[in-house]
Predict the 3D structure of the following.
Amino acid sequence: MTQPNGTPWPVDATRLQVGDLLVDLRYRRINGPEQEVELPQRVFDLLLAFLAEPGVLHTRASLFGRVWPGVVVEDSNLSQSIWMLRKALGPERRDWIRTVPGSGYVFEPPGPVAEAAAPALDPDDHARPGGDAPSVPRVPDGAPLESDAGPPAGNGPTRALTSPGGEVPAVGARVPPPPTTRRWTRARVAVAGAVGILVVLVAVVLLTPWRHGPAGRAPVGIALVEVGDTHDRDTRWPGALLHAWLEFKLESTPEVTLLDESHLAADAGALTPIVVLLASGTAAGQPDQHFVRARIDGPDGPRQLERRGAAAEMPALVDALSAQVMAELLPSRTNEPWPTLAIDADAARAYADAYDRYARRDLAASVAGMRNVLERAPGFGLAHLQLAISLARLGQARPAITHIQSAGTLLAPLGDDARRVLDAAMLSVDPQRYMEAADAFNALARDFPERTGLRLDQAWYQFRAGQPDAALATLDAIDWQSEPASVRIRWHLTRADIAFAQGDAEGVLLHAGRTEALARAGGAGWERELAGALHLLALLDVHQRGDQADRSRFDEAVRLYEGIGAELDALYIRVSADLAAAPGDESAFETLLARAHAGGYRSVEIQLLRRSAFQHYAAGNLSTYRSRLEQARAAATAAGNPVELRALDMDLLGEDLLIGAFDQARKRIRSVRHEGLGSDQSVWLDQFEAFTLAVHGDFAGALEVLEQTPRRLQQQGLPALPDASRARLACARGDYLMQQGAMDQARLELDLCSRSADRVVQLRAHWLGAAIDQLSGDRPAAARRLDRLATEVEALPPSPDRWGNTIELGYLLDRNGLHEQANALYREAALALEGTGYRWLQGHALLGLAESRTAVGDWLSAATYLRQARPLLGTDRWMTDLRLGLVELVLSLARDERKPAIARLVALHEQAHRLGDVPAQIALHGLVAADARLGPCDGSARGEQLAATGMRGGAVDWLTAALPDGQPLALE
């Protein structure tokens, strides 16, 4: 029953029992088996609210009303108090306070809250006559470190020194399979990494828990928190300057882990940080007298440090105070050198505003602010460093490199370890040195093995350098499940982005799903990470389900960004959702593109242009497609971004194949191959190279090329290919094995290929299955597959992908005797391809028309189409030379020109035999008498070959059916 004091316990109760804890109501203390903790007043009031109503959902609004009645405080005050209360309860009882994402908190102790009998004499009564609260160091005049506004508020996410490229980058270019396969992959990879282009992550190196460290350097966790009136520009700038300067020094110290309120609320794991409360203001009654202070709440109790002086003196006083704080926090590094804080009071006021924008990850405003600061204080190295980081995140590599080099010169002297951290940061802003940055983080990680965030940084820059397989190998070396939630969130999001880039749908679902769950549980402070995960999941759903996809995740990601005032990020998600559909109103796209360009967001600009290009490609708007690719390449060239340029080269490689520029394609393959690709990119390049070999009849070489990447991964001990990549390889291998007559092996590859849930891989499996059925002589089975394929092709948008699939479907229908259906499809494709520049595809459509007209005896039309097709298809390309030759052979027979027909037959067979093209040999064998010898093949050898391969449907009777004389050729 509720007592007169508004609580369920008696008004005169002095102690409460809950689980294995005693709560002392007189002295605001929690006594447990591991520790005894005294709580600040607001945190104690929060505990009383929970004790009074266990098992009840306490909304954030209701807790503000009960704990801070009538006081306006920041939302982060509650999260900070929740963290302090969980810490006081002890590690075994953290889950007594359950976070309900988006709502509030529920207090769930293992048993009831009950009054506990008071002891005969509290031992502390001897030390506290009259029951007074324990004494604490006196707070001098001025703004108190703990004001009536409540517990100290966090100052936003920790700023990254060591990961200037904190945004999820554009890495890994997805390129199309051979021309008859849809290009969904390229459109998807244009967004791989772009899902977080504006989701600028806090540096993972700062989020690592410590258990033990290298000899002589005890690991320590530290939280810097600004308190007091952080909105008063005239008084807060010394505190902001102290915050930034301490943050730089601490981030430069490898054994230090910095955490902020959102990380602590998510779960700090075993880490128990030292909290440093920072404040600044003017002395009471002395507006010209400024102070800046730091209170260090460590294991030995609070320690308060303060400096006072005129405004002009504050930068020097901040510098001196930072040295004192560092000596208190890290006594083993007391004698290490640090640079002088080279800024005056006027520039420091401007810097406080720029630093606030930098902390909020408002990159464009941060760049403008830091440039303003440097006009006033060109020798301020920290502003050069933070400007370089912001520019790098924007994708402006060249100016970022200039400013990071200035920072490297001005931020001196530094101790050896701090210099190594800065050197790693200097490497990481240069896209051409991402692998060197990864190596630098690897070296730091070896020397500080318990700082697992260094491994995340190493993996991140391997990924940015286009080496996702190396990144996965680095990530797989750590047991991330034992890390705090803050680290696991970023690990899962990194894994999800790599999985998306590699086409690993299961990996995206797993890791983006875990990111979503952890970020929701973490509550405030993790909106960006939650939005990034939702964006990935939304894009995956669009890829897998097309128009049936649930697009609500796009909407939720927009709301999350709007809720934290990230308007540009919200606009990006809206545009991303538009780009995942058919082209329509592009006003939002144009607005975002203009803002990205004006704000210097080069990475965003490039990704938007690439995604828009493939959106228009899929819709058949080829002029817009090519224009957007050209714009993207110009932007990548201007930004000096080799990873983006490599991705665009892969796009152009796909164009080479579609127009039939195979010599150019081979040159581009050699060029891109030298860049050092990740495993999935290498798989696509392998498929392209294999296709160029197969076009010329080198099927054994094509199969060998397809083994390059899996063999390299195995030899180097790197993670195996994701399932989607292995399935694609299986489809390609099945094609080339079939060309060598290895039908049983081709069926095994078909089985592996068919297991993929990927829509495009499934489509390839249907093609391969239909071809195997036809060659095996099972036309009914082939017809069933072709019916399904026809439905799927009909659903494709009017793009080159549809035209390529239409041409391939027409060929299979022709072979199955459905000539008029095939003819209609070929005509549709040929008409659509006119004027597109895709000569190779157009030539195939015309060749198909020549075959279908030959099959029905329309010799004149067949000859006309054949003449039109030949110049488009080129020469010395076995895959088309064979089909052209067969049509010419049949046309010669139709004109009763048997000698030229026999000569062509012999030449084609000789080439087929030399190349090992078994289906071609069997097709040509069917044109001669059973007892005739064709080259090295007599009737007996031909029979054995047919029995060994089972290619009972390999004859070309579908093409010769209209000949007036159905007798086989008699060879002389």
Notes: Confidence is low (pLDDT under 50) at residues 1-5, 120-216.
